[in-house]
Amino acid sequence: MPKINKNIICDSKEMDRILARIAAEIVARNKGCRKLALVGILTRGVCLARRLQGIIREISAQELSLGILDITLYRDDLANATHHPVLRKTEIPFSLDGATVVLVDDVLYTGRTVRAAMDGLIDFGRPQSIQLAVLVDRGCRELPISADYIGVEVPASPQDRVMVRFKESDGFDLVTVTPRSAFQGE
Predict the structure, then answer these.
(1) Which residues 6+ apart lie within 8 Å of 168 measured at CB?
(2) Among residues 125, 180, 139, 130, which one has the least CA distance to residue 6?
(3) Coil, strand or helix at 53
(4) In whole angstroms, how large is the CA radius of gyration of the chain?
(5) Three-state secondary structure readout of 2-48
(6) Which fold has domain 9-72+90-156?
(7) pLDDT for 22-75, tens place per residue?
(8) How do the domains of the chain map onto residue ranges?
């Protein structure tokens, strides 16, 4: 793992513990896994959703449906983009109608990503309910959105950078917060 000069919020062991807690909370709140599905928001929400799916499988002996959602076309800043957005594939190979969907993302910040994700889900069906699971809630909301399951709350200013890394893509698990002053030269 590279040397990182940042404020470490959680490491691999802590992340495992947090995800085990979130998975247990999901199963308990929904009284099992009946009509329950996970949908990860590309990209890092998908990694979390897969991990939660595995943990829930272990604790409940049930396999949850897993979907992948690309919110690119649902973003409210698409018209302001100075670059051409990269579209990736949404994969929801099951019916959302009447299901309880747990939307999964790594960081909850302004709420705009979650709003876009809910718009995207509705295009695929009519869930009975949508719940939100996030690894990090950093505050600074612009929309009235809150998570049902939160791994860790990190009061970060809008200038701070919250970084989530996963062993699947980065080779290690780590959540850090870097004050703006530490990366102004980038």
Answers:
(1) 47
(2) 180
(3) helix
(4) 17
(5) CCCCCEEEEEHHHHHHHHHHHHHHHHHHCCCCCCEEEEEECCHHHHH
(6) Rossmann fold (3.40.50)
(7) 999 999 999 999 999 999 999 999 999 999 999 999 999 999 999 999 999 887
(8) 9-72+90-156
| Residue 39 dihedral angles phi and psi, to the nearest 5° | -130, 115
The answer to whether 94 and 57 are in contact (CB under 8 A) is no
167 phi and psi, to 5 degrees? -60, -30
Condensed to tens digits (0 to 9), the pLDDT of residues 113-149 reads 999 999 999 999 999 999 999 999 999 999 999 999 9
Residue whose pair of structure tokens reads 């709140």 in the numeric block = 29
Q: What are phi and psi of 152, to 5 degrees?
A: -150, 140
Sheet (strand 161-165) strand order: 7-11, 174-178, 161-165
Q: What tokens appear for 126 in the block? A: 């009519």
- Residue 157 in tokens: 């200013």
**Based on the number of CB atoms within 10 Å of its own CB, is 105 exposed (0-12), middle (13-18) or buried (19 or more)?**
buried
Which of 56, 59, 40 has the alpha carbon at shortest distance from 48?
A: 40
Strands 174-178 and 7-11: antiparallel
DSSP class per residue in 111-128: SHHHHHHHHHHHHH---S
